[in-house]
Amino acid sequence: MKKIFLIFICFALVLNPVLSLAEEPVTPTEEVTPGSDNPLGIVAEGAILMDLSTSQILFEKNSDKKLYPASTTKIMTGILAIELGKLNDIVTVDQEVTSLTSGSHIALDVGEKMTLDQMLHALLIESANDSALAIAKHISGNIDVFVDLMNKKAQELGAKNTNFVNPNGLHDDNHYTTAKDLALIAQYAMKNEVFRNIVKDYTYEIPPTNKKTEGRHLKSANKLLYSNQKIDVNGNSVPIKYEGAIGIKTGFTKVSQSCLVSAVKKGDRTLVAVVLKVDGGNLYTDTHKLFDYGFTQFTNENLGFKNQYVGDFTIKDGVSPFVAGILKNNVASNIISGSEKDIKSTITPINDLKAPIAKGTKVGSIDYSINGKSITKADIIASTDIDKDPNTIWYKKILNKWYILVFILLFLFRLNYVRKKNKKKKRRKKNNAPSRNKM
C-alpha cells in the first residue's frame, strides 16, 4: 500500500510544474485625454477639424448632420478616376454629357477629346460639371454605374451617412453627406500623390483640343490657396490665404450654400477642415478659426514607437509562461498644449492567451488618455513565437480521461484490500491450526 501511495505522490509532483505555469497578467497603468474644445463661434451648420494622419477629431459641430455637399462631391469623383483610370487615357465627350451639363463647366463639345489628367484638373480646379460627367462615363461607361462606385467607396471609408446621386454635386434631395464623412473621404483622397498634386494648384492651362482652337485657363475658387482679400478673424484683419494650405475643394448651390473642404500642412502635421452650409462671408472665417485652433492649441505628441517593449503577457500551455509585448506601430496624438504631463496609459491584455502564439499576434491593446478621456489606442503584439509545451499535451490527455485514473485508483485500492484480506485469512488459519507436542 505504501508503494502505491508513493507512486501517486510522484505522479502529482510531475504534474505540478505544468499546473504552476501561470504568472500575474500585465498590471495596467492609466489613461489620457485632451480637455474639452473651446467654443470657436463657428457659423457653419456643420463643421469638423481632423488630423489627417491620426484621424483624431480636434473639433466638431453637427458633424453627423446630413447636409448637401455641392461640388465637394468631386473629391470622390476625382479619387475614383485616379484609382480606376490612367492619366494619359483619352476621354471622349458624348451627347449625354453635354445635354446633362448645367452650372459650372468648361464648355465641352460633343466629340471633344482630352486626357484624363486634363479632365481631372478641370474637375478639381475649375469645378467643371461637364468634366465630372465625362469622367464618370469614361470610367464606368454609364453615369449611374459610376455613382454606385462612389457610394460603395464611401461605405468602405466609413462614410455611412453619405449618399451620392451624381458625380458633380448638383442639388438633389437624396444627394447628401456629413462634415465627418467628407473629412474621411478627403483624408483618403489626400493620401494619393496625384490627387494632392492637383488640388494644391489653383491655376491650370488646358491646351487647344480637336474641337477648340484656344486653350482653357482654369482657376480655382478656393481662395484659401491664393487670395490677399482681407477677412475678420476674431477681431483681426487677415488675408484669406492661409499659410500651408494644400487644397482641397469648394462647393456652392443655392440650397447647400457655401461649402469648403480644406487641408493645411505645417511641419509634420496636416489638418483637414470641413465647413458645410454657411454664407459666403463666413466660409473662410470659419475655416481660419478651425485651423488656428488646431495649430495653436494642440501639439503632436509621440506616445510610443513601433516595436517598443510594453510588458510581459501571460501565455497558457506554452514553453514559456509569458511573451514580451511590443507596439505594432508608431503612436502619436494631438493633445492640448501643456497637458503632456497628464498623459496616462492603460494596458488591456487579451484574456486566455494560449500557445502556440505566432510572432506579430495581437496580445493586447494600450489606451492613452488625459483626465480619463481617451485620445488614441494602439495594438500590442507578440515579439516572438511561443510554442506549445509538449508536456501539456499528454497532461491534458490524461486529465480528459480522468475517469480512467479514478478507475485505476479504485482498482488498486480494491487489489490492496483483497491482498490484505487474504493475508489476514492466512494468519487466522495459521493461528487456529492445532499444535503438535513433541514426544
Fold and architecture overview:
The chain has a five-stranded antiparallel sheet with strand order 2-1-11-10-9, with helices on both faces. It has a five-stranded antiparallel sheet with strand order 13-14-18-17-16, with no helix packed on it. It has a two-stranded antiparallel sheet with strand order 3-4. The chain is an alpha+beta fold. It has helices at 2-19, 74-84, 95-100, 116-126, 129-140, 143-156, 179-189, 193-199, 280-297, 390-400, 402-432, and strands spanning 46-51, 57-61, 90-92, 113-115, 203-206, 216-219, 230-233, 236-239, 245-253, 257-266, 269-278, 298-304, 309-314, 322-327, 331-336, 343-349, 362-370, 373-382. It has three domains: 1-20 and 389-422, no CATH class; 21-35 and 303-382, Peptidoglycan synthesis regulatory factor (PBP3), Domain 2 (Sandwich), CATH 2.60.410.10; 46-299, 3-Layer(aba) Sandwich (Beta-lactamase).
